[in-house]
Design a protein that fits this description.
- With about 240 residues, the chain is mostly helical.
- About 50% of the residues lie in helices and about 5% in strands.
- It has a single domain, classed as yeast vps74-n-term truncation variant domain like (yeast vps74-n-term truncation variant fold, Orthogonal Bundle), CATH 1.10.3630.10.
- It has 9 helices and 6 strands, in the order ααββαααββββαααα.
- It is found in: Golgi apparatus membrane.
- Pfam families: GPP34.
- It comes from Actinomycetospora chibensis.
- This is GPP34 family phosphoprotein.
Length: about 240
């Protein structure tokens, strides 16, 4: 199992399975995008941006990171989770300037984010690494591609809980944050909703602060959606620039 520590209260939810109640938000994004066959998110296109956005949302809600307008600053609350701490240090290492967000979501740092998040799922006993044969030899592929969900029943439970809110149930803050991330990352489809059109419309409405309590709506409009949008926009801009060279 991984390191224990204090986690943001907003990430906790009675709707998660008992095995996943203490997952951080980036871990939960990776976890919930596992498929029902038991394979976790590993082939997701450009997943680093979504994971970094999730980490930043948790850090900001927990006051471990502060939005200072054009930059992010260290907050008064100490970061106790190693994955979240690594993200915070990566952001602040460049002065926290929002114009430098691409440093946290692309290249080597982005690959590290994916690897560290997947490693945490293994450490927690939720996923396991599976060897595979390549030309008759036993080999372990690079990050993620040989991971398989170990606690499949817990995955089914958690995916069903999120789908319920996409189908009409009012989400609590933890579920709402996850839905906002999935909406901005265009990953609602991967939850396999019964009615994709309805689920996408519902996710968009929640990302606008509707169908949730007033306090959650304020967090979404003030903090969650803007943060996720900024991180993914930085990733998209960097990808476009890189493709033109």
């Amino acid at each position: 199992m991984g390191d224990s520590g204090a986690y943001a209260v907003s990430v906790r939810s009675e709707r998660w399975s008992s095995r996943t109640a203490d997952l951080t938000l980036p871990e939960r994004v990776a976890w919930i995008l596992g498929d029902d066959e038991g394979r976790p998110m590993s082939t997701l296109t450009e997943p680093a941006g979504l994971l970094v956005a999730a980490a930043m949302v948790e850090l900001l809600l927990d006051a471990s990171l502060l939005d200072a307008g054009t930059a992010y600053r260290r907050g008064p609350v100490e970061v106790t989770d190693p994955l979240l701490g690594w993200v915070a240090e990566s952001l602040l290492a460049h002065g926290g300037a929002k114009t430098d967000l691409q440093h946290a979501v692309t290249g080597h740092r982005g690959a590290q984010m994916i690897r560290r998040t997947m490693d945490r799922l293994v450490e927690r006993g939720l996923a396991a690494r599976e060897p595979r044969r390549v030309f008759g030899y036993l080999a372990m592929p690079v990050f993620g591609s040989a991971l398989r969900v170990h606690e499949v029943e817990a995955l089914h439970h958690d995916r069903a809980a999120v789908r319920a809110s996409l189908e009409g149930d009012e989400p609590d803050e933890a579920v709402a944050m996850l839905i906002v991330l999935l909406h901005h990352g265009r990953r609602v489809r991967e939850l396999s909703p019964v009615d994709l059109t309805l689920a996408a419309r519902r996710a968009r409405a929640i990302s606008d602060g509707r169908h949730v309590t007033l306090g959650v709506a304020q967090d979404i409009r003030r903090l969650i959606s803007p943060t996720v949008g900024a991180v993914l926009a930085a990733l998209t801009a960097t990808t476009v620039i890189g493709s033109e060279r």
